Amino acid sequence: MRRLGAVVGLLLAAQMTATAQDLDPGGTIKKLAARASKTIDVNLDQSMLRFASAFLDPKDPDQAQAKKIIANMKGIYVHSLEFDKSGEYTEGDLSALRDALKQPEWSRIVNVRSKRDGENVEIYFKKDGEKFEGLILLATEPTEFTFVDIAGPITPEDVMRLGGHFGIPKVNIDQDSPTGKGQDK
Amino acid sequence: MNRLEDELKLALRRVDPPEGFAERVLARVASKETPKASPAHWWLHAFGSVQLRWAAVCAMCVSLAVSGALYQRAADRRRGEAAKEQLMLALRITGSKLQIAEQSLKELDSSGRPER
Amino acid sequence: MTIAASVLATTQLNFEDLVRENQRMVFSIAYRFLRNAAAAEEVAQDVFLDLFKKLGSLESRAHASFWLRRVACHRSIDYARRNKTAAAEISWDLLEEPSGQALENDPFLSRRLQQLVAGLPEKMRMVVILRYQEDAQLEEIADVMEIPLNTVKSTLHRAHAMLRARVETLGVRP
To answer: What is the pLDDT of residues C59-117, one digit of tens each?
Structure first.
């Protein structure tokens, strides 16, 4: 997370305001969702975020962390689509989305491919001058497409906090190994 | 493993909880979710005087209002908990993708050459 | 399994299943620590109520079990500290002195060991319970109790020494 933070940290900025909206240029997500075998959609605008925040337990470390992260956010929109087989969506399907992200206010900060999963992850920040207005994360692999749109001021520290929490295993632990022993004797 | 450790493993075997433990847990969880029921009308007829009846009607109205408020609160709570679960889900998905990005950056570092 | 599928599976974790699968573990940790069935049930119920609130943020059954073990430990320790008279804490010094008879085949050795463990200081007692009841590795004990690994090692080492000394006087050669 430090490495990611260092890359993102080059563009460190202060607070700012933005209008939240669920981005779906060209209806890309809708079209892909129609073909997907499984979809996860989370749409939380500012009022829903505030409502949810009231139910976060400050004594729970993960929920306390979540409360801090979303404090100034305008919206969080997550769409995760799973396909039965590879080839059911292509780079061509994402062209409208990518074109929208070529606008000058968007900068791609991270573009990496995981050797282990073959998953490609791109992170874009929206800026107005030196101020951050939002983040878009695109994760593509042959049978899965994930789109995360976070509107509002999101600092590199917030980005670092998102990884390694909320039950996600640490990077250096094998995700498939059991976390606990102690079988019934 | 030495004998003391073997004996400790034997001595500290897991034990069964008392009979009905799981049911008591489930009942306790269910009771926290259910608002209390409002009182019935029947006792109205037990009162002879008009004043008492009116007092009883008022008390019942208040009770119904309170029950309604309690029910609304329980419904709000359910919606809030659902919104919270959605939020945690969104943060988990985002966090997991960031982990992949971080992992990939580490792989880049260790290989010493760019992937693309 | 893809990330999205595993996340979706998590949100569908069944609370009742988790209670039934883990009740023995949770109750046993509390019982071995507190040596009081009523107190252990109270603690165990509270642990599962916590689980109910936390359910949506748990990733898998394994994660849930790990989380339950951790919460059971912490709640048991908190309960003991708040209710010194309720927990059947046996002072190490007040434990009955052995008769000196050879107890190699002592049928009550398990019970004596249970009493000896119950008489250990709190942190040491929990380390021993996690090690021998839960068969946890030292790293996991450190994670569950949120203490440094070296502390786990030294605590276990001291526990062995204390228990071994007492058990040897019972006539059992470890």
So the answer is: 788 889 999 999 999 999 999 988 764 444 444 444 444 444 434 445 567 888 888 89
Distance from the A129 Cα atom to the nearest Cα atom in chain B, whole angstroms: 25
- Looking at the structure, tell me whether residues C1 and C84 fall in a common domain: yes
What distance, in Å, lies between the first and last C-alpha atoms of chain A?
Answer: 40
Sheet of A144-151, strands arranged across: A38-45, A75-82, A144-151, A131-141, A120-128, A106-113
Write phi, then psi, for C148 (nearest 5 degrees). -65, 150
pTM, rounded to two decimals = 0.46
CB proximity A63 to B under 8 Å: yes
ipTM of the complex: 0.78
List the structure tokens of A163.
């990884």
Domain boundary among C69, C89, C109: C89
**Over residues A82-88, mean pLDDT:** 88
Supply the CATH number for residue C100's domain: 1.10.10.10
Domain with residue C80: its CATH number is: 1.10.1740.10
User: Does the beta-carbon distance from B88 to A63 stay under 8 Å?
Assistant: yes
> Closest-CA residue in chain C for B11?
C110
Q: What's the one-letter identity of residue C18?
A: L
Q: Are residues C83 and C104 in the same domain?
A: no
Nearest CA in chain C to B78: C53
Which residues, in sequence order, are CB contacts of C94 under 8 Å at separation 6+? Answer: none
Structural domain boundaries, residue C33 = 1-89
What does the alpha-carbon distance between residue A81 and residue A88 come to, in Å, rounded to a whole number? 11
Nearest-angstrom CA–CA distance, C65 and B19: 21
Separation of alpha carbons B39 and C173, rounded Å:
69
- Chain C contact for B10 (CB, 8 A cutoff): yes
